[in-house]
């Protein structure tokens, strides 16, 4: 298991991502492992119909949030791969609001989404665990901003932590 993931400096990522980085106070790989258990606990007892719940008009459903988390993890892991392998080609951004409506999330079962979650998370962890200290320190450009592998390792669980907090604060209190 890699232990090369120390807290990134603020110069290793765009200021926007500080929101996510500050949410991770532990080894980011351990955070990714913990979040798998945490997500299942949060979803326990929810019906498929509740998965389509939106706390306000125009907001994503619970299932759309989950699939958004998966899409984002895949994109960030792709960035990790490219930058970690020394590819200095600037990587494009993505528009999350274009992805969600065509994701088909609400038509999927929780079991199906969680099976995909397990696959994506295992691949992300495997990739991150393969990196050396030199790999982790590599920097590239994504969405027109500098970013390091180390920063992405914190941004990944930080993004999920943000969405888990939204589930806790805005979705689940209304459903329980």
Automatic annotation (TrEMBL):
<dbReference type="InterPro" id="IPR024775">
    <property type="entry name" value="DinB-like"/>
</dbReference>
<feature type="domain" description="DinB-like">
    <location>
        <begin position="31"/>
        <end position="166"/>
    </location>
</feature>
<protein>
    <submittedName>
        <fullName>DinB family protein</fullName>
    </submittedName>
</protein>
<dbReference type="Pfam" id="PF12867">
    <property type="entry name" value="DinB_2"/>
</dbReference>
<dbReference type="InterPro" id="IPR034660">
    <property type="entry name" value="DinB/YfiT-like"/>
</dbReference>
């Amino acid at each position: 298991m890699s232990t090369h993931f120390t807290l990134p400096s603020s110069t290793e990522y765009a200021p926007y991502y500080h929101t996510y980085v500050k949410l991770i106070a532990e080894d980011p790989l351990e955070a990714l492992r913990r979040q798998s258990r945490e997500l299942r606990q949060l979803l326990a007892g929810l019906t498929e119909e509740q998965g389509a719940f939106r706390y306000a008009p125009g907001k994503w459903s619970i299932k759309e949030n989950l699939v958004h988390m998966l899409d984002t993890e895949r994109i960030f892991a792709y960035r990790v791969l490219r930058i970690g392998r020394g590819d200095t080609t600037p990587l494009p951004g993505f528009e999350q609001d274009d992805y969600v409506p065509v994701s088909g999330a609400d038509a999927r079962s929780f079991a199906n989404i969680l099976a995909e979650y397990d696959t994506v998370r295992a691949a992300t962890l495997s990739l991150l665990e393969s990196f050396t200290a030199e790999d982790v320190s590599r920097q590239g450009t994504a969405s027109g901003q500098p970013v390091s592998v180390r920063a992405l390792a914190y941004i990944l669980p930080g993004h999920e932590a943000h969405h888990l907090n939204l589930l806790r604060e805005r979705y689940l209190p209304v459903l329980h």
